[in-house]
């Protein structure tokens, strides 16, 4: 059957009913820009699909019940032991269902990969500025999905009711209990009474298999649709402007690449599940509230909460018959709240500081936004200290460092390291910008040494090639805040807040300039590389964009090739 | 000397000097510390009296510097050995912890420097001072007929909080640690429970009965011998190593795949 | 025009015009939309308006009139044939691996640790190889069999045109007027009606759990309840627990398997030498140097059971709260804010260790009403 006959047959039947020809054609021709960092989000998407598939398999065998049973299955070390049905059914999956252990392990590795990929993707979005207008809503959706993913993982690994995850549940209950005013009610409502009760596993189960996956599916759909509708951002380069998308079409290129990537994701999870044991619940033993193991940690994405609990000093305040457990609810809420609130507000805060309400479709190179990159690294350092402290007893044991010393170090580092990271990163970014400027001005070293008549040795350089030039030149043109008119500050610039805004603007826009609009100083340096500077480029005035403008959107990039005459769009 | 001078700019000259320096320092060090020379006294044939005397000679030669001539201990250096029993001696010396290298937060397991007969001599001597738990018999540490499931429950309740759920070890305070139980023999495990070495509490026979101790030993030995059906164990320490593998293994692999898929140098692109 | 390169002798790449594919495309010059109330929504634009490149020849009549948008094949046919063979080999390998997976599933049993190890190894390896080979094959296909293209598509600004916004605004306003929503009475009563309806689902959650009441203040320990060794459930006499440096977990008799009770009632007893116990340990609550503390950490509730005989510290493995055992389990390090409660113990007529009463303070993590 040829392609044409198939199209006429099946395609015709569908089109008769759904009128899809035009829409699908547009869809198939849709251009997708290409860069390896754009695939990080796909890792998360495909791990989610793997989670759905393996999770469905597991639901056919798992019993979400806390009823106590005596085990008589294939894992003989626990023969005769008392345990919940949930734990027994997990042992059953692991040892009495063919492929069960593999599915369990793939499910857990995919969950770890899911959250790791979300974190990597989130960092990529942040450091390349892809959260900027018009993509702020997608950024917020992403943050919501990260929260849900962490919660989903927490509930998921607590379902088997083993000693390790049960300890985590106990900690969760203790944290909940400490919340002022409503803590005890929250804890009793969630656990159906005193801890541990016998309803928490079934409740977590339904949240884990139905509620959160449902919400996640809806959010993923929204996230992808928005990305489709707004078109993906692209990395700076030759021929790429704020007004186009350069890449390959969805059909067949992107489909094939993304399909290949799905196979790789599944292969990675399968490889890990074959050669790296994860969550061996038969070794942990069934949960009981009287026992605990050394080196009890949650899965890595909860590690930063665990670390903040460990490093908090013992502050508690008893007043008028009530207790404020600062030592518990501050570490539980403050780092989490700080990071997520700061992340959620950042796109809007950045808009306010820079006054930049233009659309941005070209990614920033991280070095070209030094303050943003430095802030991001400060946040990473903050998160990293908390995360490392969460493993402090394992670190103490394996690195031979005294236990309390690690906590003391963390208590200092949590304040010092983010500042150090900020300063270092900013300096590195500015240095890299200087290097870029040097390349543009002086060209690339060729390794050819020449002796001048005066006897001096020089190294010949050649100008950077066009592709690299386009990348190096892609610098966002910083907007200035509305100026004062006749000594009267513009609206939004008044008072203390206005001065703060001005000051922050200076800091955020701190950057090594490309010098004298786009001409890079226009000097050869007498070393035989007079062509280092791009020749014949028209001087380009970046047009100021009205806020929320509906007119022509000039590119934020200073790319000389960004010319309005390429724009074939109809005037609107 | 001219031979050396002629080669002073040889590329390996620097390394040779460093190596020589290390050898010199090592020689001086071992001469000064007088390392683990095996005790010379052979175990004499004869009855318990002879054994106790031999034990006392070994004790005076190797242990008294820290533990005192009467085994009364030295404050801040070494505890009194009055009443610790043969089991404690067998454990400490049999695992190589004693003689100690020097004062430390916790004495680690090291190569044993005495043979079994010598250890029994010293143990007999200490036992003769003021009694204490004797060395357990083979039947006491035999795991035949023991219940691993019960052992698991007891181990988790009493041991896992220091030694981890399978006995992979854990951190204590001030540089101390609960060691991994992989190298411990059943006798040593029994003795440790019995005598509470270092920071470990004492679990005497009336708190954890001999039968229960056998169950615990059965759990430890069976679990450490058990293969890992899911792949490499990653140390059996839980989610810390799993998280490391997730980032350094899984995510890294995915990044490599992404780099390959989006790379621009396939033949079709030339 | 765009700056895409023509690479390697391929037909010239084409620009795409702005996508006009969506039927709801409102990108029409304002002049073509009839003004006023006689506009008919949904009629297609007149033929004179701009259309997508290439749709003129929608009813293809055999030979293509226009040049291809995508090249038909890769630049170098010989290396493409070689790549084809490699890709085919990958796919065949994947097929074999998948068949191997099915064979391993059928052929390998589980039901023991060793069997599960073999089964997991076989199933996992075959599955991983199957997917890996598929991924490798697909990647080589894309990179070596598909001709390289770099095409450009124009972006429209995300914001709608002022005309569109105005038109939407008009529609919305007209509808608002027509709907009568501006009438305050019906509007306000509607909102008033939805408020309790929105609260109702929250109210429905009330029976998810009982109110805590005062239950967090008490455990099940009462006067005369014997201390049983956890796991073996044996009662203890002081002489049984006579070795200094000993520590064991005990539970109240009658509640050995009650997790809800044990989550607060689990207790550890430690044996000290005479004179080692100091205030603020309550000496009346000890027996013969044996002191009983709650095993539930006052930080967030983990069992706190690491007892270091040399330092006489009780260490909680979860967050490293450390308690000074001879001195009333006062906190000396870590995030716990209160000492471990001490259980008053004594001996009964038969000489067994029993509780004198419940704990005199609430055990476990702090809570708001604790006081």
Describe this structure in words.
With 572 residues, chain A is mainly alpha-helical. Chain A contains 18 helices and eight strands. Chain A has a domain at 33-232 and 262-325: Cytochrome Bc1 Complex, Chain C (Up-down Bundle). Chain A is globular, with a radius of gyration of 29 Å. The model of chain A is unreliable at 517-572 (pLDDT under 50). Chain B is flat. Chain B is 50% helix and 1% strand. The model of chain B is unreliable at 34-46 (pLDDT under 50). By secondary structure, chain B is mostly helical. Chain C is α+β, with helices and mostly antiparallel strands. A four-stranded antiparallel β-sheet of chain C has the order 3-4-5-6. Chains in contact: A-B, A-C, B-C. Chains A and C meet through helix 2, helix 4, helix 5, helix 7 and helix 8 of A and strand 1, helix 2, strand 2, helix 3 and helix 5 of C.
Main beta sheet of chain A: strand number and arrangement?
2 strands, antiparallel
Backbone shape of chain A: globular
Task: Look at the helices and sheets of chain A and give the structural class.
Answer: mainly alpha
Approximate helicity band of chain B: 40-55%
Number of strands of chain A: 8
Radius of gyration of chain A: 29 Å
Amino-to-carboxy terminus distance of chain A: 46 Å
Extract low-pLDDT stretches of chain A. 517-572
Task: Name a few traits of the molecule.
heterotrimer; A: 572 residues; mainly alpha; Cytochrome Bc1 Complex, Chain C; two-stranded antiparallel sheet; two-stranded antiparallel ribbon; 18 helices; 8 strands; 56% helix; globular; disordered C terminus; B: 270 residues; 2 strands; 50% helix; 1% strand; flat
């Amino acid at each position: 059957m040829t392609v044409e006959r198939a199209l006429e047959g099946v395609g015709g039947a569908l089109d008769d009913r759904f009128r899809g020809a035009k829409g699908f054609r547009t869809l198939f021709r849709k251009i997708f820009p290409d860069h390896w960092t754009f695939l990080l989000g796909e890792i998360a998407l495909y791990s989610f699909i793997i989670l759905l598939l393996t999770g469905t398999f597991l639901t056919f065998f798992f019993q979400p019940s806390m009823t106590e049973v005596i085990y008589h299955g294939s894992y003989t070390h626990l023969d005769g032991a008392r345990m919940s049905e949930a734990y027994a059914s997990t042992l059953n999956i692991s040892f009495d269902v063919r492929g069960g252990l593999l599915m369990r392990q793939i499910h857990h590795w995919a969950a770890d990969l899911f959250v790791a990929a979300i974190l990597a993707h989130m960092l990529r979005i942040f450091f390349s500025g892809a959260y900027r207008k018009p993509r702020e809503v997608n950024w917020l959706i992403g943050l919501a999905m990260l929260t849900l993913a962490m919660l989903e993982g927490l509930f998921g690994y607590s379902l088997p009711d083993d000693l390790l995850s049960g300890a985590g549940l106990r900690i969760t209950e203790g944290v909940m209990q400490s919340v002022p005013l409503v803590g005890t009610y929250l804890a009793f409502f969630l656990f159906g009474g005193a801890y541990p009760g016998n309803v928490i596993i079934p409740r977590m189960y339904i949240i884990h298999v139905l509620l959160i996956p449902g919400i996640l599916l809806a959010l993923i759909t929204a996230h992808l649709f928005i990305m489709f509708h707004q078109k993906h951002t692209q990395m700076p380069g030759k021929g790429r402007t704020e007004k186009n998308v350069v890449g390959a079409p969805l059909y067949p290129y992107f489909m094939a690449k993304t399909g290949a990537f799905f196979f790789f994701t599944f292969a990675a999870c399968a490889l890990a599940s074959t050669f790296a044991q994860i969550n061996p619940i038969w070794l942990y033993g069934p949960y009981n509230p009287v026992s605990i193991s050394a080196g009890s940690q949650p899965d890595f994405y909860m590690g930063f909460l665990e670390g903040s609990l460990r490093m908090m000093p013992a502050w508690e305040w008893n007043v008028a018959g009530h207790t404020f457990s600062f030592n518990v609810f501050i570490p539980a809420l403050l780092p989490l709240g700080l990071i997520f609130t700061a992340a959620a507000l950042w796109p809007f805060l950045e808009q306010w500081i820079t006054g930049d309400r233009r659309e941005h479709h070209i990614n920033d190179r991280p070095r070209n936004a030094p303050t943003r990159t430095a802030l991001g690294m400060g946040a990473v350092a903050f998160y990293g200290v908390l995360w490392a402290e969460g493993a402090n007893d394992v670190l103490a044991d394996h690195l031979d460092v005294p236990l309390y010393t690690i906590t003391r170090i963390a208590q200092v580092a949590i304040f010092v390291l983010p500042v150090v990271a900020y300063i270092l990163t900013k300096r590195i970014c500015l240095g890299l910008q200087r290097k870029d400027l040097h390349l543009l001005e002086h060209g690339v070293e060729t390794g050819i040494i020449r002796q001048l008549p005066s006897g001096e040795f020089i190294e010949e350089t050649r100008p950077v090639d066009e592709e690299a030039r386009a990348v190096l030149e892609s610098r966002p043109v910083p907007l200035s805040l509305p100026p004062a008119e006749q000594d009267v500050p513009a609206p939004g610039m008044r008072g203390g807040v206005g001065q703060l805004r001005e000051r922050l603007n200076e800091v955020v826009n701190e950057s090594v300039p490309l010098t004298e609009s786009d001409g890079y100083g226009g000097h050869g340096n007498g070393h035989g590389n007079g062509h280092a500077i791009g020749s014949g480029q028209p001087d380009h005035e970046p047009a100021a964009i009205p806020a929320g403008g509906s007119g022509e959107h000039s590119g934020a990039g200073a790319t000389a090739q960004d010319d309005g005459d390429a724009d074939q769009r109809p005037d609107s | 000397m001219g031979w050396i001078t002629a080669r002073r700019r040889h590329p390996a000259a620097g390394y040779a000097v460093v190596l020589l320096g290390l050898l010199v320092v090592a020689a001086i060090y071992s001469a000064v510390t007088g390392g683990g020379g095996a005790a010379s006294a052979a175990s004499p044939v004869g009855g318990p009296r002879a054994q106790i005397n031999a034990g006392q000679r070994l004790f005076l030669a190797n242990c008294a510097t820290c533990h005192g001539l009467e085994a009364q201990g030295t404050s801040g250096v070494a505890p009194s050995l009055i009443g610790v029993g043969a089991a404690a001696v067998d454990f400490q010396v049999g695992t190589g912890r004693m003689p100690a290298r020097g004062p430390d937060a916790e004495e680690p397991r090291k190569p044993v420097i005495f043979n079994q007969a010598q250890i029994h001599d010293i143990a007999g001597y200490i036992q003769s001072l003021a009694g204490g738990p004797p060395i357990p018999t083979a039947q006491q540490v035999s795991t035949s007929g023991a219940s691993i499931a019960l052992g698991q429950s007891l181990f988790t309740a009493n041991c896992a909080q220091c030694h981890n759920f399978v006995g992979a070890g854990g951190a204590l305070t001030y540089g101390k640690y609960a060691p991994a139980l992989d190298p411990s023999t059943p006798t040593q495990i029994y003795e440790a429970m019995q005598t509470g070495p270092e920071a470990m509490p004492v679990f005497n026979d009336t708190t954890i009965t001999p039968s229960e101790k056998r169950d615990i030993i059965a759990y430890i030995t069976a679990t450490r011998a058990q293969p890992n059906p899911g792949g490499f164990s990653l140390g059996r320490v839980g989610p810390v190593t799993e998280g490391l593998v997730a980032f350094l293994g899984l995510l890294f692999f995915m990044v490599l795949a992404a780099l390959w898929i989006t790379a621009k140098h396939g033949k079709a692109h030339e | 025009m765009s700056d895409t390169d023509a690479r390697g002798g391929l037909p010239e790449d084409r620009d795409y015009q702005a996508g006009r594919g969506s039927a709801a495309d409102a990108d029409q010059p304002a002049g073509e939309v009839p003004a006023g109330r006689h506009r008919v929504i949904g009629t297609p634009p007149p033929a004179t308006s701009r259309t997508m490149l290439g749709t003129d020849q929608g009813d293809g009549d055999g030979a293509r009139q226009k040049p291809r948008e995508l090249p038909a094949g890769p630049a170098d046919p010989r290396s493409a044939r070689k790549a084809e063979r490699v890709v085919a080999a990958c796919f065949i390998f994947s097929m074999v691996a998948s068949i191997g997976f099915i064979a391993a599933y059928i052929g390998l049993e589980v039901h023991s640790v060793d069997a599960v190890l073999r089964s997991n190894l076989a199933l996992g390896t075959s599955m991983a190889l199957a997917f890996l080979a598929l991924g490798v094959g697909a990647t080589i296909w894309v990179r070596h069999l598909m001709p390289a293209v770099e095409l450009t598509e124009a972006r429209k600004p995300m914001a709608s045109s002022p005309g569109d916004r105005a038109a939407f605004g008009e529609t919305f306003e007209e509808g608002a007027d027509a709907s009568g929503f501006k009438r305050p009475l019906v509007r306000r009563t509607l909102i008033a009606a939805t408020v309790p309806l929105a609260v109702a689902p929250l109210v429905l959650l009330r029976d998810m759990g009982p109110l805590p009441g005062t239950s967090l203040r008490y455990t099940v320990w009462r006067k005369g309840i014997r201390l049983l060794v956890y796991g073996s459930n044996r009662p203890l006499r002081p002489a049984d627990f006579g070795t200094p440096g000993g520590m064991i977990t005990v539970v109240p008799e009658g509640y050995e398997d009650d997790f809800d009770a044990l989550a607060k009632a689990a207790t550890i007893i430690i044996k000290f030498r005479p004179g080692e116990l100091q205030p603020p340990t309550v000496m009346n609550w000890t027996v013969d140097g044996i002191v009983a503390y709650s095993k539930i950490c006052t930080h967030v509730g983990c069992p706190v059971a690491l007892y270091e005989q040399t330092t006489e510290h009780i260490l909680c493995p979860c967050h490293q709260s450390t308690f000074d055992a001879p001195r009333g389990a006062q906190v000396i390090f870590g995030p716990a804010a209160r000492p471990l409660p001490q259980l008053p113990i004594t001996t009964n007529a038969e000489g067994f260790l029993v509780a004198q009463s419940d704990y005199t303070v609430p055990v476990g993590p702090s809570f708001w009403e604790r006081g």
